[in-house]
Amino acid sequence: MARTLLRVPGTAQRGEVVEIRTLIQHPMETGFRPGADGTVQPRDIIRRFTCLYNNRPVFEADLHPAIAANPYLTFTFVARESGVLAFIWEGDNGFSQTETRALTVA
Asked: Is the entire prediction scored with pTM above 0.85?
């Protein structure tokens, strides 16, 4: 399981624009770089990131080999109701990780 860092406020006012920051530790190997023995390292990247708010997508991104290691993503959305944010990273070699955080809207 990869280490993640999430910056998500615990509370927000109804209609407030909320900023979310995510970072996941992942090498993001492009599949083009030779290793120490001269053979090309197999590709291993995170291909897709999705954030769901009460099971509805609020942010989605397709990632490609040019993305740096340990991808950092930041985005905003409008808080309308209390609920759960689910952060989903999917990648090569069956990689999948999900983290959740609660958001209370007053």
From this structure: yes
